[in-house]
Amino acid sequence: MEKINKIKEEVLELINNSNEMELLQQLKIKFLGKKGQIQELMSEMKSLSNDEKPKFGQMVNELKQEVTKIIEEKVKELEAIELIKKLEREKIDVTLPSYKQVIGTTHPLMNIKKEIEDLFIGLGYTVAEGPEVEYDLYNFERANIPADHPARDMQDTFYINPEVLLRTHTTAIQTRELEKANGKLPIKVICPGKVYRRDDDDATHSHQFMQAEGLVVAENITLADLKGTLQFLADAMFGKGRKLRFRPSYFQFTEPSVEIDVSCHICGGKGCSVCKNTGYIEILGAGMVHPNVLEMAGFDSTKCSGFAFGIGLERVAMLKYGIDDIRNFYTNDVRFLKTFDRFD
Ligand code: DAH
């Protein structure tokens, strides 16, 4: 009896003084564990008479229950205190002003690129890309511009070595796509990408710029298909009812070749500063894919035909958004880029 009471007192005192979970765990082991003090008491039962045993057993059991209960209550108490402390620690003052979130905007050229891609995807084209560091083969040779041809002077090129260069036009993607098709028709691709030329940068020239190349090859493709497609493009980019003007031109990779002007979206064709009083703005080069280009890619040019066009994305963006200096696209002035928030 004495021992039992002593244990009970000891437990109460220790519990009252332990304000940490860890201590409570230790106490639990000390009293209730397999080798704990209460279990030890049980083993003393053998030394008692048979009369005393049941009573003693009952008392030890009661002690065990009581100690268990005391410890559990203390655990709950400590948990409650811990929770209050935690809530206090993690309190958030929702009335404090927040930090300003600086969010970027989509680059205007990316908007145009996406717009053109979406437009042609809607017409059943797929989007194709190619490497910016390109072989002379795809950039010139396969575009029917042989070595030493004076046309290579027109496009002053960044050469990496005599065979490798920074592509000067997305026509390099066109020639790759023709090869990739491996003789299979039809081909309908739109090929956007960056191109490079050794130009001195000024308001209308940039040594790096973007183009999108369109290419359709199948049986019986004619200039009329090109006209319809470009009318669709002009209406979508500059507003319905644009008038197109086809001027004869010359590119090595097309025959016939044309340059296309679109009626000025600012003055509607009457003449203004944007169209330099001509009523028209030149927007792209195009033509029927040259038989040589088809043959070099393994097609029989008597059995199929195609049209191609190349459009400068900066030019479209400048016309559409009224930007007067191409360098704005590449100097990354946040104030300039921010103005395109509303076009996202
Ligand atoms: N590659 C030409 C350039 O960079 C643009 C071009 C003209 C592409 C006519 C074409 C085309 O596909 O048919 O100036």
Name the bound molecules: 3,4-dihydroxyphenylalanine
Q: Give the amount of beta strand, in percent.
A: 15-25%
Distance between the termini: 84 Å
- In the sheet with the most strands, the strands line up as 1-5-6-10-9-8-7
DSSP strand tally? 10
Write down the overall mean pLDDT: 91
Low-confidence runs: none
SSE run? HHHHHEEHHEEHEEHEEEHEHH
- Report the total helices: 12
| Gyration radius, rounded | 41 Å
C-alpha geometry: elongated
Helix content: 40-55%
| Largest sheet features | 7 strands, mixed
Helix/strand-derived class? alpha+beta
Structure description:
The protein has helices at 2-17, 21-32, 37-43, 52-89, 108-122, 136-139, 151-154, 171-181, 223-238, 291-296, 313-321, 334-338; strands at 126-127, 133-135, 159-161, 164-166, 187-196, 208-218, 244-249, 254-263, 280-289, 305-312. Helix 5 crosses helix 11 (313-321). The longest helix is centred in the first third of the chain and has 38 residues, at 52-89. With 344 residues, it is α+β, with helices and mostly antiparallel strands. The strands form two sheets. Strands 1-5-6-10-9-8-7 form a seven-stranded mixed sheet, with helices on both faces. The protein has a three-stranded antiparallel sheet with strand order 2-4-3. Helix content is 42%, strand content 19%. It is elongated. It is built from twelve helices and ten strands. A hairpin with a 2-residue loop joins strand 3 and strand 4 (164-166). 3,4-dihydroxyphenylalanine binds next to helix 8, strand 9 and strand 10.
